[in-house]
Amino acid sequence: METLLVDGEAVRARFPILGRTVHGRPLVYLDTAATAQRPEAVIEAEAAYSREHNANVHRGIHTLAEEATGAYEGCRRRVAAFLGAPGPRGVVMTRNATAAINLVARGLEHTLGAGDEIVLTVMEHHANLVPWIQLARRTGAVLRHAGFDPETGELDLDGMIRLIGPRTRLVGLVHVSNVLGTINPVAEVAEAAHRAGALVLVDAAQSVGHMPVAYPELGADFLVFSAHKCYGPMGLGFLVSTPETLERLEPVEGGGEMIERVELDAATWAEIPYRFEAGTPNVAAAAAFPAALDLLEAIGLPAVREHEIALNARAVETLERLGGLRIVGPRDPAARGGLVAFDDPLVHPHDMATIVDTRGVAVRAGHHCAQPLHRVLGLVATTRASWGVYTTGDEIEALAGAIAFARRTMGA
Ligand code: PLP
């Protein structure tokens, strides 16, 4: 099979699931933006943890508990280093990116009052819309949303900067849109937000692990992402910040692990970041995630990004060749993350995804948790194909063949 990455076959061989068949055909997995497949090293690290080290963290002084704590804290250190973040004390481990955004929204509640403003974009995933809707309902804060150009997928940067004012308390935006693929000018937005004294949250769920992402360069006060979109296990996400910024958040979940001292009617909090991690965490996932980061660093994040840009170019060209498809988002392959969403006026996205699946091709159809974004596009749903380090050019061709088959099947 042709590959675009120099060592593509070597990379693919590390992902055992890619050897399976679906409906009697080789799996063509083009749904990495929903969840990335896991390399054997991650699967093995998770199993090895369960086989050899399983214990609860922080609470015990026996050997297994110390090993589990070492693995768990090792993940925190590894993530801080991977993103060039100030240090492990600024890294909170959560269930996923969604939980990390909720943690910030609820943690900031005590700082917001009626009339304070939260500035977002209409291209956000629901994970970066709904927690702020809930917060606005509770506090009387006002939500403002920057738009984007439905033709090019480009954020209205000037409009967004104009929305930021003296009452703005938080500015939140997605780094890479999970539908348009648009890469947003996060640092410019952050600069404007900081000039106004607002905090900045960047949803990096689609960028971490797919392109070089340096926490200090983005200008984010809070950066969130999920391990499972980054070749790691499900059930683990991150809020990356600084200890000083985390001090501004109230811990919203109470319980074991997050306290310093408990009386029957009072409690004090543990130090940062532990005060945000109530209860038993997903230690097995944390033990395994560094293996995913090792693989990414062995390939090199610039090479990963180049590979995804080459796949973008191939996909846009191949889909345009089919004719009649509306590809959403930027035309320039270097201006989008590793995904292409499209609408075929002849075949409903759900039919499309169902029929291409019969050819072994896994794509996603629907609103991709971005209903307001789709309204701007004038569409209810799109079909999305997305890639990762293991995707090949031949798989893009397989997608095109499957789309043509879907059209024939639907009599289009
Ligand atoms: N933000 C973006 C841009 C996403 O694409 C997703 C997942 O699709 C999320 C947030 C939520 O991620 P999770 O479901 O892992 O919390």
Description of the structure:
- By secondary structure, this protein is α/β, with parallel strands linked by helices.
- It has two domains: 9-39 and 301-409, Aspartate Aminotransferase, domain 1 (Alpha-Beta Complex), CATH 3.90.1150; 43-296, Type I PLP-dependent aspartate aminotransferase-like (Major domain) (Aspartate Aminotransferase, domain 2, 3-Layer(aba) Sandwich).
- It has helices spanning 8-12, 40-53, 63-82, 97-107, 130-139, 157-163, 186-195, 215-218, 243-246, 283-299, 301-322, 349-357, 371-377, 393-409, and strands spanning 21-22, 25-26, 28-29, 91-94, 117-121, 142-146, 168-174, 199-203, 222-226, 237-240, 259-262, 267-269, 326-327, 339-343, 361-362, 364-366, 382-386.
- The strands form five sheets. Strands 4-10-9-8-7-5-6 form a seven-stranded mixed β-sheet, sandwiched between helices. A four-stranded antiparallel β-sheet has the order 13-14-17-16, covered by helices on one side.
- Helix 2 runs antiparallel to helix 10, helix 3 runs parallel beside helix 10 and helix 11 packs parallel to helix 14.
- The longest helix has 22 residues, at 301-322.
- The chain is globular.
- The model has no long low-confidence stretch (mean pLDDT 96).
